[in-house]
Design brief:
The chain is of the alpha+beta class. It contains 11 helices and 43 strands. It has an 8-stranded mixed β-sheet, with helices on both faces. Strands 4, 5, 6, 7 and 8 form a 5-stranded antiparallel β-sheet that branches. Strands 9, 10, 11, 12 and 13 form a 5-stranded antiparallel β-sheet that branches. Helix 10 links the parallel strand 41 and strand 42.
């Protein structure tokens, strides 16, 4: 469910033109002749306690139907006609192009004889993979996803692509139009040839090579009857793990693991560090998994059929992540009896819990986020400490703390942390609200193990020293203290008039630590505003205890926390209601929908992206059933009672008071989002407008933007990202009266 990070940059010119857009609202709210979709009042479902719930827009769930496609065209035409009335659209577009246009580099990594890095000259739609002879060499293009489509809508899934152990074959995973469905292909590193092998219907998969370099393990729904592409919303069942031998057709692939008695499970596999074992994870929900291990050495690494799986962790209710192993001694990260996670070691020949050893015990205040083995004798741990990352070096045998690394307030991205367990070199990327990326390097063969800056991504014409980030704590409705980050210009005055963009997520244990975003920089500079992140319950900022306090029947705590953040910002004279914009995506979109219904008086405008709004049917599409462990089941009597109370689609209550109305609301979705399907947004916007018909006091607009050839947020092209941000900020300008500064 987690989504998107954007990037930014600012211009500094001595003179500034200030435009007040307060006058635009009256003109921009030209006759709001919304599309008028058909309602079918005969469609309904019966839920627990014989509760009949109508669903008049059920037909919108058929995304490929002519009627739905026509509606999408009408909605986009209306939105375009509305937003085009905003002055300075061209200036906004130029501004965002300028912000994005800076060279970006990833950390380098290596496999076999070669080094690799991802680079972007600035406005390339997708990052390009370079190959190097050494970390300091200029390198040359090895794989450029921008050549795969004219509009930049085919993305390389860099985190899940993988090189063979000898570094000679690159298995790369591609996503088209942002879909969660992937294809996998193979390229020879030195010869440059693309193999004929092509793996389809891949989803929720990693890629892991056999150490003999002959084949790769992957996960897929090969039994899926319909075409595997993002506009299909059929529920996905019977996920299986397969083995593919290089140079053969996919039809020859061997199914190595399945759980036919549990069709909801989704399965992933990793070859162990030593190459002798396959670690199989059966995920039983969004926050639970089981672990099994197959002995590959025992079958002489010949995969001919289903593997014999030895159960290691078979009780639901906890997470287990494989870290590394020495022979039969395995290290896992787990929250079993440890809300803040810990590292355990065990002999897989005797996995009885009584034999487990706490290698690094749970820290009662800091949350263990990641663990990476290094130089064969160390393990680097990344913790979340008061919603920022800290790094520590431990002994891999004893767990003893050796060193604490000095980092600023920010985030070490797990996917960017790279090392080879035998190498002394570790390298990772660090981001903050004001820092687009510092690449750190450390040589563990040279005490005292100091971090050195290998490379830094720098924005053009932006002096981050003029801005600051502070962390405050505020009280929620029940008295719980909640942290919030505020980023703004140091010269900002607390006069109650500052434009403020408040972001929240609060779900799936997804802690929101400081991240870099182009929109943040534009907002704090051009709008001279405040970017606020409320670390509400439901996330993982303080471990599973914080997560549990905002899930299932405690979900209302997330909404209360977010609303309390808005109240705090107003009470403490940072901003006022009219200048307060809230934003959330995915589970954060659910947050937006609930807050829209519960506290319409609190916000000036709402931007909600790819949100989960129909809480009675979220489990009916693609992999939505995996979220039952987070939200509960609508068909369960106890769960239905609390879900129905906050479900955004079913709680639209526009005030009858002629002096009150819902704030201006903009929904965003994509036609190939096969995670949170577009019908959530189509049904919600239609319901908002239908209810508004009987409330003449509702003058603020409800609009929806439906991106073509895009998905839930991953792999979006730079061009599409810029277009989306321009539209979002035009909407904000037109409906809040805040000042826009052209510098």
């Amino acid at each position: 469910m987690r989504i998107m990070i954007q990037k930014l940059l600012t211009i500094e010119i001595l003179t500034a033109v200030v435009i007040n857009y307060a006058y635009i609202q009256a003109d921009a709210n030209f006759t709001l002749t919304y599309p008028n979709p058909r309602r079918d009042e005969n469609v309904s479902d019966i839920y627990p306690k014989n509760t009949v719930v109508k669903d008049p827009y059920r037909w919108m769930e058929a995304l490929d139907s002519e009627e739905t496609r026509k509606l999408i065209e009408e909605e986009n035409a209306f939105t375009k006609s509305y937003l085009v009335k905003s002055p300075f659209r061209a200036e906004l577009e130029a501004r965002f192009k300028e912000l994005y246009n800076y060279p970006r580099y990833s950390q380098f990594f290596w496999k076999g004889k070669h080094y690799f890095s991802f680079q972007n000259t600035g406005l390339q739609d997708q990052n390009v993979l370079f190959i190097h002879d050494s970390p300091n060499s200029e390198g040359k293009v090895f794989f450029d996803p921008n050549t795969l489509s004219q509009d930049g809508t085919i993305a390389l899934e860099s985190q899940n692509s993988a090189f063979s152990e000898d570094g000679l074959i690159f298995a790369y995973m591609l996503s088209a139009n942002g879909s969660d469905w992937k294809t996998v292909q193979f390229k020879h590193v030195e010869q440059g040839d693309i193999y004929k092998d092509k793996l389809e219907k891949v989803k929720l998969s990693t890629l892991s090579w056999m150490h003999n370099n002959k084949g790769v393990f992957y996960s897929a729904y090969l039994d899926q009857k319909n075409k595997s592409e993002g506009s299909k919303t059929d529920i996905n069942k019977n996920h299986k793990l397969y083995y593919h031998v290089i140079g053969t057709e996919q039809s020859k692939d061997v199914m190595v693991a399945e759980f036919p008695n549990h069709p909801d499970y989704w399965i992933q596999g990793w070859v162990s560090y030593c190459g002798k074992y396959l670690v199989v994870s059966a995920n039983t929900g969004s926050d639970n998994n089981l672990i099994y291990i197959a002995d590959l050495e025992k079958i002489d690494y010949e995969i001919k059929g289903k593997l014999e799986l030895t159960p290691i962790f078979t009780e639901t209710g906890a997470k287990y992540n494989y870290i590394t192993n020495d022979g039969r001694n395995f290290i896992f990260k787990t929250n079993k009896d440890a809300d803040n996670f810990k590292l355990i070691s065990l002999d897989i020949g005797n996995p009885d819990p009584k034999t487990w050893k706490d290698l690094v015990p749970e820290n009662k205040t800091d949350v263990l986020f990641g663990a990476v083995p290094a130089f064969d004798k160390y393990i680097v741990l990344c913790y979340i400490q008061n919603v920022k990352n800290i790094l520590q070096l431990h002994d891999i045998k004893t767990g003893t703390l050796i060193k604490k690394f000095d980092l600023d307030i920010g985030t070490v991205y797990g996917s960017s942390f790279f090392n080879d367990r035998k190498s002394p070199i570790i390298i990772f990327r660090f981001n903050s609200f004001l820092t687009p990326g510092i690449i750190y390097r450390c040589d563990l063969s040279k005490p005292p193990f100091e971090l050195e800056v290998f490379r830094e991504n720098k924005l053009k014409n932006f002096d981050r020293q003029k801005y600051t980030t502070e962390q405050i704590f505020y009280k929620s409705k029940d008295g719980t203290e909640v942290p919030m980050y505020l980023t703004y210009k140091k010269s900002l005055q607390k006069n109650g008039n500052n434009p403020t963009l408040l972001y929240g997520y609060g779900g799936f244990s997804g802690g929101i630590s400081p991240f870099f975003s182009i929109n943040t920089i534009a907002f704090i500079s051009n709008f001279e505003g405040i970017f606020a992140v409320a670390n509400i319950r439901g996330g993982g900022e303080y471990g599973e205890k914080w997560h549990r306090a905002g899930k299932l029947d405690k979900k209302q705590n997330s909404f209360d926390d977010f609303q309390a953040a808005a109240e705090y910002l107003i009470a403490e004279n940072y901003t006022k209601t009219q200048s307060l914009i809230i934003y959330g995506a995915s589970n954060g979109g659910l947050l937006m929908g609930a807050c829209l219904n519960q506290r319409p008086d609190l916000f000036g405008a709402i931007i909600s992206e790819v949100g989960v709004y129909d809480m009675l049917r979220f489990d009916k599409f693609t992999i939505g059933y995996n979220w039952i462990t987070e939200y509960g089941s609508p068909s369960n009597e106890k769960d239905f009672e609390y879900i129905f109370k906050y479900s955004p689609l079913h709680n639209v209550r526009i005030p009858n008071d002629t002096n009150k109305q819902y704030p201006a609301t903009m929904l965003l979705t994509s036609d190939h989002d096969d995670r949170v399907v577009p019908s959530h947004s189509l049904k919600f916007i239609s319901t908002l407008r239908y209810e508004a018909k009987t409330h003449p006091n509702q003058k603020n607009p409800f609009i929806i933007r439906i991106e073509a050839n895009a998905g839930h947020g991953g792999g979006v092209s730079i061009e599409k990202a810029i277009a989306r941000l321009v539209d979002q900020n035009c909407f904000i300008i037109m409906n809040t009266g805040i000042k826009f500064h052209i510098q």
